[in-house]
Design goal:
Length: about 60
């Protein structure tokens, strides 16, 4: 095996990992989990969470 073959295999492995990660991130089944994670910085502030939920509800009604 020469260095070109090893680099080619490395590129294929990274490409497969990138495609897999992209599919995982944009999977519709994960949307609820990621929506909950976006609120984590505001977990200590109930007023901020209420404001964010109202904003997201207004955006969903606009579409």
């Amino acid at each position: 095996m020469d260095i070109g073959t090893i680099r080619g295999l490395g590129t294929v492995v990274v490409m497969v990992a990138f495609i897999g990660l992209t599919l995982w991130v944009f999977s519709p089944r994960r949307k609820a989990e990621f929506d909950d994670a976006t609120l984590l910085p505001f977990a200590d502030d109930p007023e901020a969470i209420k404001h964010l939920e109202q904003t997201s509800a207004a955006r969903s009604h606009e579409k």
